[in-house]
Each structure stands twice: as structure tokens, then as C-alpha cells.
């Protein structure tokens, strides 16, 4: 596992942020599963998920159905909240302050300001520090991650390419973040504060947060993998690359003929994530998981079909 | 030849690195303030994922995380019985924070449908998610008398925290009181008084919520010292581990 996170990590040093980022710290090493019903949420909980993401349609179905994807129906979120004792997260559209307010009032445990839904604002993300509820946001690179943290995000995830079952974009995003953190460390060593300031201008982020990242040698908040995790091996790969945990969207419930099939997949992905260095466990998990979702190759997507380009 | 004293942190999921870092800071603090207490002992800190790793440990922290996940993963890894042996038969020092406190309780309420498996060791009943969802998570200053007289309040971080709702319960099979009937009683070490307003109507009793307990070798806190830079509780606990080792109450590896 990576180095420690600073206890209060967006430079504010305040108790509110410690509480927000702290919940994400307690999810480390775990799997967060997309669920669309209370029954699916129970399957996730029994399989050992650390949290569930309540949404109306899994990303692969959002892709297939097209149209505008929005925050889920509050009634469905409430049913899921009643069904499980683990944290419940829910998605709001990028920049949709009121969807975030509704989710906060519902008492979900985390809001995902997500590119998987259709963006509501083409200029601004939500100012997340205004909220008491913590936020997780996607990123493709270090600059994007630190812009979201500056806005108040207490947890980051790779964007990947949701709903495809193709891991290549998630790998690209974590590799990019890792490489840029290495650059930040080198910039601090070589140029001190001026080196950090120059790099902050180049990648478009807050100087103090970049310096903190360089000093820590990692993002100052928890960073999960997301977007394309379809198999136990995919989940273990993302842990191997230094992610703190894994979101699984379509990989569990997509095309699962029965609840038993979904339960087996869910268990297998938890096993692979928590024991990602244990080869025997990965063999067992891969067998238990069985046939993965068919998926869509990222290379076959037209640029306008990609979700990861949403947000900035 | 110094004796090896290995302190493990159960690393199935959750805030593992945070505890390891504070343990190292605590050890450095003890080294600089009272080096004599470390004389003849070689301290090491390690992650524990297997029974073999657990066997190497003289003491253990069960960190915060999701207790349902930890119980499920521990069951699959065959770790539940070795953990029970560690806590309740070998009586090695164990500390659980938040989810770790839940794991160390003999009983828990507000569990997932169908209940959840526990390690046990504390004759208490915990109430999970006592304050509600993440919206009700908070930081509060706690007076911790066990740290000594005149100490500053501890900035305790409560995240979807459990509390101890009953102490000295008569556990069904396996409770410390049951085994031989003369185990040490549960000591209440900290109470949080600010939670009354958050209770549902009629629930408040004016006595506050029990948020830290100790029973013999087992210590539990509702909150997360590992999410702060405050090393005091880790120093306090580590001193007890060292003390137990020094007085031969611990099976120390390499002896």
C-alpha cells in the first residue's frame, strides 16, 4: 500500500475535511459496486463490498440507451439506503449543484460528481467545499485530480471509460497520474518552490496542493480505480498500479443471468482486490468469476461516445 | 540479544497505513522520552493478512474500515478462529478502532441483514452507525483521563461510528466472563456527551455515549486516532504492550 495520507489533506487542515477524507480512507483496499436495486445492494454487501453506488442504470446500459443520464430517483436511493448498512454513494451530474443538494439532503454517504451522467454545466464543476457531504470525482491526470481536490473533493478515482469493460483507459489514467507525481517530486527537488510553481502552471493546478503531492509522493486524498474494471484480474491490476481500491460499475450485474451469477462475480472481485498479490487467490477468483461481460473495445469508440472527455 | 516484539495491524481493508505510521511515531516518541522502556526489545511493525503473519505478532491493531467487509474477508482467509485464539486464549494485547471495536465486541446491533461475524473479546454490545450516515460524522474534543492528569482534550474523529451500548454482558459461549467466570470487568475509559442532540427522541439518558473501553488485554475506541497526528493514544497503548512484554505476560518471538 502507498504511503500515508496527510490527516487533513486539501491544505485547509480543518476538521470537516478530515471527516470527509477519513471515510474514503476507511474504504481503502475495498470494492465499491454500482447497484440499481435494493436486491443488488444486498448482493454487494454480502459479497464484502465496502460501499455501493446507487444509480438507475449501470454505465453500460447508459451507453446503450443514450439520451440524458441524470441523478437517480430519490425513492430508489432510499430503498437502497434501507437495505444495507455499508455506505451508500450516489451520482450527480457535473456542475449540477441542486442534484448534489438533493443527495446531501437524502443523507447519502458520498456524492460522485460523475462524467458517467450527462454534464449539467459546461464551465464549472460543483464547488464541493460548500457542502458538508463528501465528494468523489474522476480524473485523467494529476492536474485534473488536484483541480477537483481544490474544489473540495475528498476522494479521487480514475475516469477510465465507464461501461466498456475495457481497462485500457483506467490504466492510462493511473499511469499518467503516477508519472506526473514523479515529475512533481523531481520538480520540487530540482527547483524547489519555483519548480513546483512552474509545473503547477503547466498542468493547471493549485501550487500548494501540488507541493503537498510532491512531498507525500502520492495524491493527498484516497484514489480509487474506476471505468472499465470487468474481471478480478482487472481489479488486481489497478491495485498493482497503486490504486487504493476499486469501483466496479457494469462488471458485476451486466448480463448476469441470475443473482447467483452476480454474487459469484461480486465475491470474486472482492477477493482479487483484497488479495491482489496472492496468485493462488487470483486463480480462484478468476475461476469463480467465470465469463466476463462482453464489453466494447475502447479503440472502437468514437470520440463523442467517450465519457472520460467530460469535465476538465 | 534483544527480543523481537512485533506489533501487527490487521490489513484486510481500511486504515492500515495510518496506524502503522502512528505506531512508528509512537515508538520514536517512547525512544526519545523513556528509552529504558525499550531496552532489550526490538520493536517491529507489520501488516497482517495471514495466520502465519498473525503468529509472528505479540500485539495487534484492528483498524477502521467496513466491519462487514473485514468479517467476510477474514472468514474467507480462515483468519477468524486464529484471531479469536490470539485475543481470547493467548490474551495478547489487541486494540480495535471503529470497525475494529465492532469486531472485538461479543455482540453487535444494527448489523447487516442476517448479522455479521465477530472476533469478540470485549464483553460489550456495540451499536453500529450510532450517529447515522456520513452527514452525522464529526470531530469532538474528548477528555481522556487515562492519558494522565491535565492532558489537552483529544481531537477524536468519529466516522459513521459505533458506540458501546451495553457493558459486561453475559456473552453466549466464548465471552471472557463466561470462560472461567473470573475475567476482568469492562472498564469504561471515555464517554462522549455531545451526542444527546443527535439521538432520536426519548433515547437520551444524560449519561453520554461510551466511546472507549478496556477489558484485560483488549482495548477498543469508537473513534479514529489514526486519522490525526496526535500520537498520545498510540504511545499509551504501546507502553502497555511493552509493559506486558517486560513482565513476561507476552509470548515474545525469539525467546
TrEMBL record, chain A:
Active site: 91
Ranges of residues in domain PdxS/SNZ N-terminal: 17-226
Transmembrane regions listed in the UniProt entry: none
Metabolic or biological pathway, per its Swiss-Prot or TrEMBL entry: Cofactor biosynthesis; pyridoxal 5'-phosphate biosynthesis
Keyword Transcription included in the entry's annotation: no
Pfam families to which the protein is assigned, alphabetical: SOR_SNZ
GO molecular function, one term: pyridoxal 5'-phosphate synthase (glutamine hydrolysing) activity
Residues reported to bind D-glyceraldehyde 3-phosphate: 175
Signal peptide span: none
UniProt-listed Enzyme Commission number(s): 4.3.3.6
Domain of life: Eukaryota
Keywords from the UniProt entry: Lyase, Pyridoxal phosphate, Schiff base
GO biological process: amino acid metabolic process; pyridoxal phosphate biosynthetic process; pyridoxine biosynthetic process
Binding site for D-ribose 5-phosphate: 34, 163, 228, 249-250
Catalytic reaction list: aldehydo-D-ribose 5-phosphate + D-glyceraldehyde 3-phosphate + L-glutamine = pyridoxal 5'-phosphate + L-glutamate + phosphate + 3 H2O + H(+)
Described purpose of this protein according to its UniProt entry: Catalyzes the formation of pyridoxal 5'-phosphate from ribose 5-phosphate (RBP), glyceraldehyde 3-phosphate (G3P) and ammonia. The ammonia is provided by PDX2. Can also use ribulose 5-phosphate and dihydroxyacetone phosphate as substrates, resulting from enzyme-catalyzed isomerization of RBP and G3P, respectively. Also plays an indirect role in resistance to singlet oxygen-generating photosensitizers.
Family named by the database record: Belongs to the PdxS/SNZ family.
UniProt name for this protein: pyridoxal 5'-phosphate synthase (glutamine hydrolyzing)
Organism: Chaetomidium leptoderma
TrEMBL record, chain B:
Pfam families, A to Z: SNO (PF01174)
E.C. numbers: 3.5.1.2
Annotated SUPFAM superfamilies: Class I glutamine amidotransferase-like (SSF52317)
GO molecular function term, any single one: lyase activity
GO biological process: pyridoxal phosphate biosynthetic process; pyridoxine metabolic process
Enzyme class per UniProt: hydrolase
Protein name from the UniProt record: glutaminase
Binding-site residues, L-glutamine: 65-67, 128, 159-160
Amino acid at each position: 500500500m502507498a504511503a500515508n495520507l496527510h490527516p487533513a489533506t486539501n491544505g485547509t487542515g480543518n476538521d470537516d475535511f478530515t471527516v470527509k477524507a477519513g471515510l474514503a480512507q476507511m474504504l481503502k483496499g475495498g470494492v465499491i459496486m454500482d447497484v440499481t436495486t435494493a436486491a443488488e445492494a444486498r448482493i454487494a454487501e454480502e459479497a464484502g463490498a465496502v460501499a455501493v453506488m446507487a444509480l438507475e442504470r449501470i454505465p453500460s446500459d447508459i451507453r446503450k440507451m443514450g439520451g440524458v443520464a441524470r441523478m437517480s430517483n430519490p425513492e430508489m436511493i432510499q430503498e437502497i439506503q434501507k437495505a444495507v448498512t455499508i455506505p451508500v454513494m450516489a451520482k450527480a451530474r457535473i456542475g449540477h449543484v441542486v442534484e448534489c443538494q438533493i443527495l446531501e439532503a437524502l443523507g447519502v454517504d458520498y456524492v460522485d460528481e460523475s462524467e458517467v451522467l450527462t454534464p449539467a454545466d459546461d464551465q464549472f464543476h460543483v464547488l464541493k467545499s460548500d457542502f458538508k457531504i463528501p465528494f468523489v470525482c474522476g480524473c485523467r491526470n494529476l492536474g485534473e485530480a488536484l483541480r477537483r481536490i481544490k474544489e473540495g473533493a475528498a476522494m479521487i478515482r480514475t475516469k477510465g471509460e465507464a461501461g466498456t469493460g475495457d481497462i485500457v483507459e483506467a490504466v492510462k489514467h493511473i499511469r499518467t497520474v503516477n508519472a506526473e507525481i514523479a515529475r512533481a517530486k523531481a520538480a520540487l527537488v530540482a527547483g524547489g518552490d519555483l519548480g513546483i510553481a512552474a509545473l503547477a502552471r503547466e498542468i493547471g493546478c493549485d501550487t500548494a496542493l501540488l507541493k503537498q503531492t510532491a512531498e507525500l509522493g502520492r495524491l493527498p486524498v484516497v484514489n480509487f480505480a474506476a471505468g472499465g474494471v470487468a474481471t478480478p484480474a482487472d481489479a488486481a491490476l489497478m491495485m498493482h498500479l497503486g490504486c487504493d481500491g476499486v469501483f466496479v460499475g457494469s462488471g458485476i450485474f451486466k448480463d448476469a443471468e441470475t443473482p447467483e451469477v452476480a454474487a459469484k462475480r461480486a465475491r470474486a472481485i472482492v477477493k482479487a482486490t483484497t488479495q491482489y498479490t496472492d496468485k493462488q487467490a487470483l486463480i480462484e477468483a478468476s475461476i469463480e468469476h467465470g465469463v466476463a461481460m462482453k464489453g466494447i473495445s475502447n479503440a472502437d469508440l468514437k470520440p463523442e461516445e467517450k465519457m472520460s472527455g467530460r469535465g476538465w | 540479544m534483544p527480543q523481537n516484539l512485533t506489533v501487527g495491524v490487521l490489513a484486510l481493508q481500511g486504515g492500515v497505513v495510518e496506524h502503522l505510521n502512528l505506531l512508528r511515531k509512537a515508538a520514536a516518541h517512547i525512544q526519545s522520552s523513556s528509552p529504558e522502556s525499550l531496552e532489550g526489545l526490538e520493536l517491529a511493525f507489520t501488516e497482517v493478512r495471514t495466520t502465519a503473519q498473525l503468529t509472528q505478532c505479540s500485539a495487534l491493531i484492528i483498524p477502521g474500515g467496513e466491519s462487514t467487509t473485514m468479517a467476510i474477508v477474514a472468514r474467507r482467509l480462515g483468519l477468524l478462529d486464529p484471531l479469536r485464539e490470539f485475543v481470547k486464549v493467548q490474551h495478547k494485547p489487541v486494540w480495535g478502532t471503529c470497525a475494529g471495536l465492532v469486531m472485538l465486541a461479543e455482540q453487535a446491533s444494527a448489523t447487516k441483514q442476517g448479522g455479521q461475524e465477530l472476533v469478540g473479546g470485549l464483553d460489550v454490545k456495540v451499536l453500529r452507525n450510532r450517529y447515522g450516515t456520513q452527514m452525522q460524522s464529526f470531530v469532538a474534543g474528548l477528555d481522556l483521563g487515562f492519558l494522565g492528569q491535565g492532558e489537552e482534550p483529544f481531537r477524536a474523529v468519529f466516522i459513521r461510528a459505533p458506540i458501546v451500548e451495553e457493558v459486561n454482558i453475559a456473552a453466549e459461549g466464548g465471552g471472557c466472563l463466561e470462560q472461567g467466570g473470573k475475567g476482568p470487568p469492562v472498564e469504561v475509559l471515555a464517554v462522549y456527551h455531545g451526542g444527546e442532540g443527535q439521538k432520536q427522541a426519548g433515547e437520551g439518558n444524560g449519561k453520554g455515549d461510551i466511546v472507549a473501553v478496556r477489558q484485560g488485554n483488549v482495548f477498543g475506541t469508537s473513534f479514529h486516532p489514526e486519522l490525526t497526528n496526535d500520537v498520545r493514544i498510540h504511545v499509551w497503548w504501546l507502553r502497555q504492550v511493552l509493559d506486558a512484554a517486560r513482565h513476561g505476560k507476552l509470548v515474545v518471538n525469539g525467546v
